[in-house]
Amino acid sequence: MAVEKFKTDFGPPKPMLPPVVEKNYGKWKYHEVVRCGVVKRVSETGDVVYVARFGSPRLLSIYTVRDLCDLADKYADGYIRWTSRNNIEYILTDEKKVDGLVEEMKKLGFPLGGTRDTTKGVYALSNIIHTQGWIHCHTPATDASGIVKAVMDELYEYFTEMKLPAICRISLACCGNMCGAVHASDLSMVGIHRKPPKILDDVVKRTCELPSTAAGCPTGAITIDVKKKTVRIDEAKCMACGNCYTICPGLPIFWPEDDGVAILVGGKVSDARHPPSLSKVVIPWIPNNPPRWPEVVNAVKKIFLAWAENARKHERMIEWIERIGWEKFFELADLDFTHHLIDDFRVGAYQYATYRSSTQFRW
Ligand code: SF4
Ligand code: SF4
What we know:
Elements: H1 19-23, E1 28-35, E2 38-43, E3 48-54, H2 62-75, E4 81-82, E5 88-92, H3 98-108, E6 116-117, E7 122-123, E8 129-130, H4 145-154, H5 156-160, E9 170-173, E10 187-192, H6 201-207, H7 210-215, E11 222-225, E12 230-233, H8 243-247, E13 260-265, E14 280-287, H9 294-310, H10 317-324, H11 326-332
Parallel strand pairs: 8-9, 9-10
Antiparallel strand pairs: 1-2, 2-3, 3-5, 4-5, 6-7, 10-13, 11-12, 13-14
Helix pairs in contact: 2-3, 4-9
Bound molecules: iron/sulfur cluster (2 copies).
């Protein structure tokens, strides 16, 4: 079947591909990991490329981006790409240029790493995928880039060396809307609001469309006070998701003392060996403590190391947990079990909403 018949939304559209990649589209024969961060790809046509991967903090100044583009001009025919986990990748056609690029990236502060060699069963940690945080979005319960930087500083050696037993995807979403794939990652941090929004009656009255504000609440907690041209929130029904604040700026949901971070484990999208699974909460709340979030960093590191030191080769977080049992997991990760961790999610028809009944479930 002709390769052109397949369409994918992975990677850039064809006109943006480096010429060597476009020329060999669908013809790549095999690849090998030359060293952590450098993958050699060989085509049926005889062409060879070297893909060099570097970690990035995701938020970059325009000056840094220009520096990175200068390196693309110098080493990779003017092409550069960002992976979905915020790694920077250059595709080089000349092996002799790899060391020069790595050296210049090192000077700019970008480490080489994040690859895996599955044939040898050695894995490096890829970068942490994360959301906008306090710098950009309007509903975060915690920051994104700040925590991720603090966590990756602690796990740096696992990015630059392939010494993990399997893939471990770490993610962060700064609120429960979770733009960051935290439901399907091995280890996740999620910003949690714990109190309903404030109601600024005057702002609601002046700026919000009341019917759409009420309709935007997924639990039906919002009613309209027609006489006062504002809304009321039934706190017993509110799950502090912040969706109403997206619709109406008169309902801000920021509580510095009550917002914080939950830790989840055991999600995965891949159906290799074990079906896709949703993450489960293992720490319900940790307070925000910027700028370095030591409590969150410590919790993530504890769980990560418990898995890294005890899992078998190729065994992802949920596979390891299910082999040893959740009780043993809590013991090895040194975590407390509280009533907040009991899964009692029941909202009418949504109770069937699991991966096994979604289109993700293939059989
Ligand atoms: S996870 Fe929530 S707060 Fe963070 S970027 Fe997405 S919608 Fe905004
Ligand atoms: S925070 Fe969420 S659940 Fe609470 S009132 Fe707003 S939309 Fe409804």
